[in-house]
Design a protein that fits this description.
By secondary structure, the chain is α+β, with helices and mostly antiparallel strands. It contains eleven helices and 19 strands. The protein has three domains: about 55 residues, no CATH class; about 90 residues, Pdz3 Domain, CATH 2.30.42.10; about 200 residues, Alpha-Beta Complex (2-enoyl-CoA Hydratase, Chain A, domain 1), CATH 3.90.226.10.
């Protein structure tokens, strides 16, 4: 063997041993220093000291926080990165900066379809219409457009504008639309056949109680002799908003129970004022939390008939905790119970009095609001039940 090569190999081997020894000694030193250091803190220190490439520490922290919350095994608790916190708050406030449209994917995957244009919004003023296919937002073309990134591209500061290019009747048209603060309409109502007042409650976040109660009274003045509440696809919200609506409807008694992380139980009660008339509530697997307990309370009081599909059974309630760097965690801190003390999680969700299944495509179309009441089998079933009760 060449003497020179042998010497080089020996030198490299010694250097390798020295590096390993140095790393081991350093690790032992850090272990000694960091007796109170957690595994994650220690790993972060190791990465910072020894990792050979550049890395994004914020990305690592986000991933670690997300994994930590996911490891709790509670589907209702989740980590909120700083980049998503504003949108989280906007959802709770039922207000956001945008242009006032609702979109869904198109079959060929190229662009997104406008399925709703908010009345009086900037999109309507600019000339956008239901059925338009958005094929470009700014410089972003149809190939890259999904519902999520289209929403992201449309968002921005109030008062700024965004260019939206759509395909309408096989022709391209471009509109310049102003971004504005938009207050989401939480509850909508209409009179259906046989004087049934139909009220769709989209969530139980800010303003939901005031809007729902106002609609109840408006429809009654217009001659409604029965009420049909629709909480399908309602993700829940604030229990205080839900309780206000139940208090308006139900007689004196317990409305809702909650138990916090320390075992303290709170019972919300109704006064003697109530609304006596035939009622029904529509639910489905995407009726969560407050939406489920709204229907459950009306059912336990025998005040309304529940129609649709079984709900999921979300009995945990969450609070949003600020983590100090713009991010937050939405953490389950207690349990909800029906007026009779039932946990919907323990019984597999709320079972409707009248189960009406719908196939997948129709389910999606109901979500996007493209199904007329007279074509919706769950509404039809509820109307039939109310007709016999009037």
């Amino acid at each position: 063997m060449n003497r020179k090569n042998t010497v080089i190999k020996v030198i490299l081997r010694v250097a390798s041993y020295m590096l390993v020894a140095a790393l081991a000694a350093s690790a032992a030193y850090m272990m000694a220093l960091g007796g109170s250091m957690s595994k994650l803190e220690y790993l972060e220190e190791m990465i910072d000291r020894y990792f050979i490439e550049d890395y994004d520490s914020e990305k690592i922290n986000d991933a670690a926080a997300d994994a930590m919350v996911n490891a709790l095994g509670n589907r209702w608790s989740y980590y909120i990165p700083a980049s998503e916190y504003k949108a989280h708050v906007e959802r709770q406030q039922n207000a956001y900066v945008g242009i006032g449209i609702t979109i869904q994917p198109v079959e060929n995957g190229k662009g997104v379809e406008i399925v709703k244009v908010e009345p009086g919004g900037s999109a309507e003023e600019a000339g956008l219409q239901v059925g338009d296919i958005i094929i470009r937002v700014g410089d972003q073309g149809a190939e890259e457009l999904s519902v999520d990134n289209a929403k992201t591209l449309v968002q921005g500061e109030a008062g700024t504008t965004v260019e939206i290019t759509v395909l309408r009747d096989d022709k391209e048209q471009t509109f310049t639309v102003e971004r504005r603060e938009i207050k989401v309409v939480v509850a909508t109502g209409v009179m259906l056949e046989n004087n049934v007042g139909y009220i769709k409650i989209n969530n139980f976040n800010d303003r939901s109680a005031a809007e729902t109660i106002a609609l109840i009274e408006k429809l009654r003045k217009e001659g409604a002799t029965a009420l049909l509440f629709d909480v399908r696809f309602n993700p829940g919200g604030y229990k205080d908003e839900m309780v206000q609506v139940l208090d308006h409807l139900l007689p004196e008694g317990d409305l809702f129970r909650s138990v916090d992380y320390e075992g303290n139980e709170t019972v919300d009660k109704s006064d003697e004022k109530c609304l006596k008339m035939p009622m029904a509530v529509l639910v489905n697997p995407d009726s969560y939390s407050a939406a489920e307990f709204f229907a459950a309370a009306l059912k336990e009081y025998a005040w309304a008939t529940v129609v649709g599909q079984p709900t999921t059974g979300k009995s945990h309630f969450q609070v949003t905790l600020d983590l100090g760097d713009g991010s937050a965690v939405n953490l389950s801190v207690g349990k909800y119970l029906t007026p009779k003390g039932v946990s919907l999680a323990d019984v597999g969700g709320l079972k409707p009095d009248k189960i009406v299944e719908v196939e997948e495509e129709l389910y999606a179309n109901i979500y996007y609001g493209t199904v007329k009441p007279e074509e919706d089998p769950q509404i039809i079933a509820a109307l039939e039940l109310l007709k016999t009760a009037q």
